[in-house]
Design goal:
The complex is a heterodimer of chains A (about 475) and B (about 450). Chain A has about 475 residues and is an alpha/beta fold. Chain A has a domain of about 325 residues: Alpha-Beta Barrel (TIM Barrel), CATH 3.20.20.140. In chain A, about 35% of the residues lie in helices and about 20% in strands. In chain A, helix 5 crosses helix 6 and helix 5 runs parallel beside helix 7. Chain B has about 450 residues and is an alpha/beta fold. Chain B contains 13 helices and 16 strands. In chain B, the strands form two sheets. In chain B, strands 1, 2, 3, 4, 5, 14, 15 and 16 form an eight-stranded mixed β-sheet that branches. Chain B has an eight-stranded mixed β-sheet with strand order 6-7-8-9-10-11-12-13. In chain B, helix 9 packs across helix 10 and helix 10 packs across helix 11. The longest helix of chain B is centred in the middle third of the chain and has 34 residues. Chain B starts with a helix and ends in a 17-residue tail after the last helix. The chains are: A alpha/beta (about 475), B alpha/beta (about 450). At the A-B interface, helix 1 of A face helix 5 and helix 6 of B.
């Protein structure tokens, strides 16, 4: 007994099978799909405005790159016969931006529930204490992570990627912002040890003081163990075997001066703490973040430490959101720093002055990069904690507050390359360097400019949403996705 | 049911006559088929004429033709001679048993396989090939499927020991033109319209990128070939290499497209890209945009004809009438069955097209000289003319009629025996004889 409906259902099932069978090949088809064969490894961008580096501009020139390396750049350049020629008329080419530190491409740990309890909270195992300096961003990098594309679309081609975690999450690595697998993305070179003042949950070290002590302890233990190991290696006869663990071993190159410590600081006290540790122990340090480092300019300048400033800015006060720039400036100008006298007789005036103080306080953060520039400190930028969509808006604010465009570009390119000892490979548009390039239709720091193409190691990527202007929608999306 | 019964009857009635004519081997030689009604297709009908075949060619056609002494004469009195039929779209030779994966070679993994040449995959010994010849089909296009660029289709003759011997000289690179999803969700779809739209757009973008790169590749390789001195060797991309003859027009581009909107888009697409040699295949809803196709001058390979209408609002006969309406609008039409083991039904596809508006003459042309012209092999194939390849058959009536028997068939001048697995089985079991010394009673299976 077969009902008509039953037959129909059977037919539907068969149709579904056929349909499913046809699915996988179509599902991910798109323009930049890796299954479209590459027909030329040579690209020539002709007649473009080429910003080779800060204050090094070719008004009309051609840049040629083959197999991901720039082979020629100049006013008159022979274009190879096998080049994919891009007409650069009305386009500007910049060196790709380098992000001096972020977690971009490292997946967030999945289980963020209550951490397990340990028998002795004052002496937890290393991984529970957030101390895994032997780990590496190289093994954790996910080439399909969506943040990579977002950061690439705003111009970043290289990132110093640090693993996620607490006090000592592991070693950071330089990586390209695009690649079909992590091997394609990871760059040779410096792998600094990432260190931050983030305490362990419910166990030692949880406080800044504990973190500093723990760092000193690990450093000095490693120093001693290195010497023990050297003795043992020379003549083990009669000696107890030196203890081994991966954490201390990861410190050996730091102690030997072969590995930098990349420190993240997000408030002024952390800057002092990091510099104290460095002075005490004498390791090579790269200081990053420095949010609120307005008053440490002289100290940083005196230390000669390499620095990377955060691209993050405090949010605008709520009342300021609807106001225009000139009226904000008007309020800011009216600020009177004499706030000690109670002005209860005129509550409105006090409120206005406090609002002006909010703006003033924020403007100090906005103007910090300019302070560092004026103090003659070469710095890079880090996007740690900044959503990609905010990067250009924040840069524009910093430039308005006095940062020069050259210094901003230097921070995003040559300075960052120098920071990581990669100046011979990246940071500017010169023959022999990696073909990490941004192609825009205007000055990259202008609001109405769009990024048309991003070349990562010579591979073209075309951002789908190219405008660097208002990213409020992006921000809204980012905030909902973070919840 | 009726059609099937008629087929069975047709087989049973013509078998006895066949038995004597059978030869073990297909042989070339000198043949003269005399006193037959010859449908030349190219030059009308010769009511009582002779065709002389020598080697692989037709050397004489006409009413008063001298028959060479060495010729083996086949008396064609009361019989008809037709050019061998060409099916413009099949998977014959690429598939053996649909449900056995190992025997199916129509689909390569991936989206972009224009360099996959169907000819290399054709199995000359496929069971379905002799089954097809029995209907008078001598030549077919074997086409791969799946993905955006499934591969290169090959025109093959249905006789030969190797695929290379079978080639009829024409190839065509297939593009599966992305079909734009309609707004509403079909009852089987798990995905919403947005997702399907996105996939459609991605596919279109990918297709365009493939041809953008192909153009660049062609430019680079041509420049290198013209003068390699001092130049770096270009990248070798087999996929792109296969598209070079498409860009030059040496090989046609077969665009598979069915829905009316998609046909219009495909016309715009091939015009914008200025492909010199394009045919459309499938074209189920071609009748809706027939004038557009005619205006664009794009030949179409229509079919299957024996199909249901594409929309529930259509008249029952739209699929049958499609080819006729296109032909009437001035489009150059060839027919395809889209079949594998049922390519033998090509004449009945043509019969339906003829009945539903196309007319016998045009339908015959659409399975003979029409496709030969579309694929540029009309110097050798498609009609009964002196100098052409001897691809023809002798029948006792109109081959579009199911009751007609094909009595002799020539491919490349080989007199191919009318034999197939179907007939072998029929004969075997018509007179069961196990060859025993003492015949035994044949018991029912459930004893």
């Amino acid at each position: 007994m077969y009902s008509f409906r039953g037959i129909l259902r059977g037919a539907a099932f068969c149709a579904a099978l056929v349909w499913l069978g046809g699915m996988p090949h179509e599902a991910y088809a798109q323009k930049n799909s890796p299954d479209i064969p590459v027909v030329s490894n040579v690209v020539a961008i002709e007649n473009a405005r080429i910003v080779q580096g800060p204050a090094r501009v070719l008004q009309s020139g051609t840049v040629v790159f083959r197999d991901g390396v720039i082979t020629a750049v100049g006013r008159r350049v022979d274009v190879p016969y096998d080049a994919h020629v891009i007409d650069g008329d009305s386009l500007t080419v910049y060196a790709g931006f380098i992000d001096a530190l972020s977690h971009t491409g490292i997946p967030e740990p999945r289980n963020q529930g209550q951490p397990e309890s340990v028998p002795d909270r004052s002496n937890p195992p290393f991984d529970r204490a957030g101390i895994t300096p032997e780990a590496s961003a190289r093994t954790a990098l996910d080439p399909d992570h969506g943040d990579l594309e977002k950061l690439r679309n705003v111009g970043f081609t290289t990132i110093m990627v640090a693993p996620r975690g607490r006090m000592l999450p592991g070693q950071a690595t330089m990586a390209l912002s695009a690649g079909t697998n992590s091997s394609e993305m990871i760059l040779q070179g410096m792998q600094p040890m990432f260190f931050q003042f983030t305490g362990a949950q419910g166990v030692y070290p949880g406080t800044p003081m504990a973190i500093m002590s723990k760092f000193r302890q690990l450093y000095r233990e490693a120093d001693r163990r290195m010497r023990l190991e050297a003795m043992y290696a020379e003549d083990p006869s009669g000696l107890a075997r030196p203890p081994y663990d991966a954490v201390h071993e990861a410190f050996f190159p730091v102690v030997a001066g072969d590995r930098h410590v990349l420190v993240w600081t997000d408030e002024v006290l952390e800057i002092h703490r990091a510099m104290t540790l460095q002075e005490e122990l004498g390791f090579s340090m790269i200081l990053t973040g420095l949010e609120g480092g307005i008053d440490t300019v002289d100290k940083v300048a005196g230390s000669g430490l390499p620095v990377a400033l955060t691209l993050d800015l405090p949010d605008q006060p709520r009342f300021a959101a609807k106001l225009k720039a000139d009226s904000l400036q008007h309020i800011l100008d009216s600020y009177d720093d004499e706030t000690r006298t109670a002005t209860f007789r005129d509550v409105e005036a006090e409120k206005e002055n406090l609002e002006a103080r909010q703006l003033w306080s924020r403007s100090r953060y906005v103007g910090m990069a300019a302070l560092y520039e004026n103090a003659g400190i070469p710095f890079a930028f880090t996007t740690m904690g900044v959503s990609a969509g905010d990067v250009h808006g924040n840069l524009r604010e910093m430039i308005e507050a006095g940062l020069s465009r050259e210094a901003a570009l230097a921070a995003l390119t040559v300075n960052a390359a120098a920071l990581f000892g990669a100046s011979d490979r990246m940071g500017s548009i010169d023959t022999g360097k990696m073909a990490n390039l941004i192609v825009t239709d205007g000055d990259v720091f202008d609001e109405d400019t769009s990024i048309k193409m991003v070349f990562v190691a010579g591979q073209m990527h075309e951002p789908s949403n190219t405008s660097l202007g208002n990213r409020s929608r992006d921000r809204a999306e980012a905030s909902t996705s973070n919840q | 049911m009726n059609l099937f019964m008629t087929l069975v009857l047709a087989l049973t009635t013509f078998l006895p006559q066949q038995a004597q004519q059978q030869d073990d081997k297909a042989r070339q030689g000198t043949y003269a088929i005399t006193n037959a009604r010859i449908e030349t297709v190219a030059n009308g009908t010769i009511e009582n004429g002779t065709v002389v075949i020598e080697g692989d060619r037709i050397i004489a056609v006409g009413e008063n033709v001298a028959i060479p002494e060495s010729a083996r004469v086949i008396d064609g009195s009361g019989l008809h001679i037709y050019p061998g039929m060409i099916d413009s779209g099949t998977s014959l030779g690429l598939t053996e048993v649909g449900s056995v994966a190992e025997t199916n070679d129509t689909r390569e993994i991936g989206d972009i396989n224009p360099h996959m040449d169907a000819l290399t995959a054709v199995n000359p010994n496929a069971i379905a090939i002799p089954v097809t010849r029995v209907s008078g089909v001598t030549t077919v296009i074997a086409e791969p499927s799946g993905g955006l660029l499934p591969g290169t289709a090959a025109m093959i003759n249905l006789f030969g020991y190797t695929a290379e011997q079978m080639t009829a000289g024409a190839k065509s690179v297939i593009v599966q033109f992305p079909a734009e999803p309609s707004g509403d969700r079909p009852w089987w779809a798990q995905e919403g319209p947005d997702r399907r739209q996105e996939r459609y757009r991605n596919n279109m973008a990918k297709l365009n990128e493939v041809f953008d790169r192909a153009v660049l590749y062609n430019q680079i390789v041509s420049a290198y070939e013209a003068d390699p001195t001092g130049k770096e060797r270009p990248v070798y991309a087999p996929e792109m290499d296969a598209l070079r003859p498409v860009l030059s027009g040496e090989v046609s581009l077969m665009v598979k497209v069915n829905a009316a909107d998609d046909i219009v888009k495909a016309i715009a697409w091939v015009q914008e890209r200025e492909f010199p040699n394009v045919v459309f295949s499938g074209v189920n809803e071609g009748w809706r945009v027939a004038d557009r196709l005619a205006e664009a001058g794009i030949p179409v390979l229509v079919g299957p004809i024996l199909a249901t209408p594409t929309r529930s609002s259509d008249r029952y006969d739209r699929a049958y009438a499609n080819a006729g309406l296109l032909s009437e609008a001035g489009v150059s039409v060839a027919l395809r069955s889209g079949e594998s083991e049922n390519v033998r039904q090509l004449p009945f596809n043509a019969g339906f097209a003829a009945t539903y508006g196309m007319g016998k003459e045009a339908a015959l042309r659409a399975v003979t000289l029409g496709p030969a012209e579309i694929f540029g092999i009309d110097a050798d194939y498609g009609s009964i003319e002196v100098g052409k390849k001897a691809n023809l058959f002798v029948s006792d009536g109109d081959p579009f009629e199911t009751s007609t028997n094909i009595l002799a068939l020539f491919i490349d001048g080989f007199n191919v025996p009318i034999d197939s697995r179907h007939l072998d089985l029929y004969q075997e079991f018509l007179n069961r004889d196990e060859g025993r010394l003492q015949p035994v009673e044949i018991l029912p299976a459930d004893n």
